[in-house]
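User: Fold this; tokens only.

Assistant: Input:
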Amino acid sequence: MTSPVAPFRWAGSLALIALLAAPAFAGPPSPPGVYVPGGEHLPEHTDETAREGEPEAPELSLLNYFFTRATVTNMVADPAGLRGVSLGPIGLNAGSFVGVGDDSTAAYVEQRWIPVITYAPAFADNVATFRAQFEVDYTWGIASNTVQNNQGGGINADQVNIQTKNVNVSLTPFRSPSKLAIIVGTQSIYDSMYDPTVTSVFDIVRTGYKLTFFGTEGTGISLYSRYDAHRWKLSWMPLGASQPNKALENDPNFEWLWMGTADYAFTLTPGTEIGLSYWHLSDETQGEAFAFQGLIRNGPSSIQLWPFTGIRPFPMDKATGDVHYIGANFHHNIKFNRGPLAASGFVMYNTGRFESQREDIAEGKQAAVDIGGLAADLELAYNWGYTRDDVITLHGIYTTGDDDPLDDSYDSVLTLNYYGLPGAVFFDHKTLLLFPFISTIGNYTGAVTDISNQGHGLTAAIATAAWDIIPHTLNLKVGTAFGRASVDPPEESDVRRTDEGNEDIVRDPGQNIGLELNAELKWHLRYLMTVGLHVGWMKRLDYYDDHPRVTADPWAAFTTFTWYAF
């Protein structure tokens, strides 16, 4: 009898699942998608995988992904600024203005449809594969009879809303993706070194740097190769371009923002790898490139981007500079194929310097800012029960913080959330409120949305326990998480609304962010079809003391329906 995972007999199908479950970003990019139920237990594809007796893969294939989510919460975010998308940390008086109050309960329904097309013609002789991925997102009732991404669901429908996610060609000169794969075009860019066209997203989000530094789509070229126990990845991605001197100096030349990566990993034993990384980011755009075209500029000094992604803008104008990333990572037995214990983690240090290109430095601004930030992550898992979903996990993450964001140094990490909306997501945290709930479409909000935590740094601990009440059918997970700023945040000026009008106040926030309790119940109706119920509550701590927009403990309840069909 054919096994339930027979549809995944060739690498292309794994690629499609990876593309769909991966962080899906719209313009402005919407946050990550959802887990494929059971997908983390799919066998790893190799050239030696037995496929005798199974039909040949079709030249042209289509995979459909449908997801809908209904939400009731007291975390209310304004999607108007990004035309249908809400991003950013709780409490900021800018961006999506995420507020929490006793009388701020809101309810809404979102849905997403993603088709993925793969074309591998026989005449290409397994040397080339074309892939295209599109996306349609909206909140029910938002708009109709118009053209706009992340909008739709209103009366009459009649909405044009198609977002390009991936359009690329995968070249395999040796007819084996594991030996050498060259991906050219718009593609998923992750801080894992695994090729996303032949790797399940569950391996990607639990290996390397777990999308904490970058996880989105981009256009460029990537090379993936594996020989024996050695694995390599090289990539080059232009992240933006601008013409900063066109208006004043009549200079039409482009100035580029790009990132190059080099990663190497060695397999100690099957299922256990250690890796080393060096990445380089170069930004010559002088802050004139856009994260949202014509509306929100990106870069380290963008005062428009930071409220949406939870980073800390540098006190400078027209910044150019370079950042170097040096990291090490490991993972062991993450699929429990070789025992009940699993582990993964990383250490990453980034260093660099940005300089202002302004001749006259304004008061309160810096001529240059030096960067030095450290991030570390460790997750342990124990498969205690009958199925692989009977798991207990302990997870810790730490990033350095900067207690003086206005001086000439920045002592925290710099992720691609400085350049995208968002450009990096922490996808493996298993929380709902301390970090944003990952099963989302247009609302990606939480207490911490970037591991730098607005430059204050982060010290977080997460514990979960899951049980298959009905094996492979009904799963219950409960969890708790605690987050804390790594440094004492500086005083902040804020505005409190009163009956007499607005009142200026000065807040002195503490370091403790919140303590979360959550529970999730998932029912796998059919293969790759799941209904979920998710509830979470977070006790806000002294990080939100005297905060005018966070006057209650955040809570949320979600129902989700997910269906992959091919």
